[in-house]
Amino acid sequence: MRVLLVEDDDRLAAALTTALSRHGHQIVRAGLAVDALRLSGGVDFVLLDLGLPDMDGLEALRRVRRVSAVPIIVVTARTDEREILRGLRSGADDYLVKPFRTAELMARMEAVVRRGTRPMPARDHVITVGDVRIDLGTRQVSVGGEPVTLTRREFDVLALLAREPGVVRSREEILDEVWGDPLLSASRSLDVHVAGLRSKTGRPGLVETLRGTGYRLGGQ
After folding, report:
1. Where is the Response regulatory domain (predicted)?
2. pTM for this predicted structure
């Protein structure tokens, strides 16, 4: 496989390159997130460190996931359970904490490949709910043919729900995906944005609240 290794530690990158090459993989190395984003579209697998100098690795992970279904294993020294959950919720297929043995890395890569890649995220995809039209590609929303202006986060919340209509998203999951911090669940920020969506579209039932569970895309 053609593997993108995103790692800013030269010594570790060299060791992993040698080990992966011995197993028949072709390695493309990136030390910066900006290079990883540029190269991720041309590889079969991504090994992603989170401690990158130009961008947090979780943000890089989210950006890759918006456009690619390439298998990704996060490889990092971060051991905090919250970080692990954020990595998996942001789209990682697996999470491996340093230091690790090469044999474990290979086994995990093989397991991810056996499971198959996740569905491609919707890009130029349009979801219609009644007379509400949500264009995920252009980030435009219209109601009855009339455009509706949403804030960036209002659209991000709506898009997250629209990608899988009917699927319930927990408050923590939405806050983690859109705000990047599930601990904001104690705030009313999400409630304010959901209220804004209902008000601006004039469709109170567009976003349904399931008490104690979360939200899902509903009818009008």
Report:
1. 2-113
2. 0.58
